[in-house]
Amino acid sequence: RPGAEEWVPARPSLRTLRSAVQECRGCELYRDATQGVMGDGARRAGLVLLGEQPGDQEDQQGEPFVGPAGRVLDEALADADLAATDVFRTNVVKHFRWSGTRGKRRIHQSPNKGHVEACRPWLRAELALVRPRGVVVLGSTAGQALYGPQFRVGESRGRALPWPDDLDLAHPPAWAVATTHPSAVLRARDERQAAYDALVADLRVAVRLLG
Ligand code: URA
Ligand code: SF4
């Protein structure tokens, strides 16, 4: 079976995952990327924030959510009174998919279902180590990775969703809350403030669920 499984260490730590992902050949995305980007944050964070894939900046720096979308996310976390120490930020796909350039920036392309499927063992390993109480699903790629192709952020956002059991975790999260991806806030021109406020409102739902 193709996919990342054979590159994931048997008894990993967050640190060994980070080095092991650099060897992954589970799909072709490693070829055009600078490096693999694993999640970052508190080892036993209450909440995992799940994005799509590293972007241009993340690919260069090797850390998730350090570019423009990450700045929106950090601001929204602060406005939702979520302590940065209680979150772990990661993505469903660990290598940056892109094609073509615009100025100096490489143009982002969303990963497809095959990439998401191939990369799932890395996400499973992170969730097994962090054991979050809940997961915030950022945008439709993350949502479809967990709930299938019918998933729509607009229909599912801002409330507790049951955790889908197909990741086969010994200690699964109790719930997930879906919201818009912070990069969608950046793209929403006239409605940027409304989109941002809705993101913060959804994060507050997760804060309430954390108790
Ligand atoms: N967008 C994502 O989904 N993840 C990142 O890490 C950065 C941008
Ligand atoms: Fe491996 Fe995921 Fe990178 Fe594909 S995207 S090579 S599965 S780490």
From TrEMBL:
GO term, biological process aspect, one? DNA repair
Renumbered to this chain, the signal peptide range is none
Keyword Hydrolase in the entry? The reply is: yes
Which residue spans traverse the membrane? none
Sorted keywords for this record are: 4Fe-4S, DNA damage, DNA repair, Hydrolase, Iron, Iron-sulfur, Metal-binding
Q: Which residues form a coiled coil?
A: none
Q: Which GO terms describe its molecular function?
A: 4 iron, 4 sulfur cluster binding; deaminated base DNA N-glycosylase activity; metal ion binding
Protein family membership: Belongs to the uracil-DNA glycosylase (UDG) superfamily. Type 4 (UDGa) family.
Q: What is this protein called?
A: Type-4 uracil-DNA glycosylase
Which source organism? Nocardioides simplex (Arthrobacter simplex)
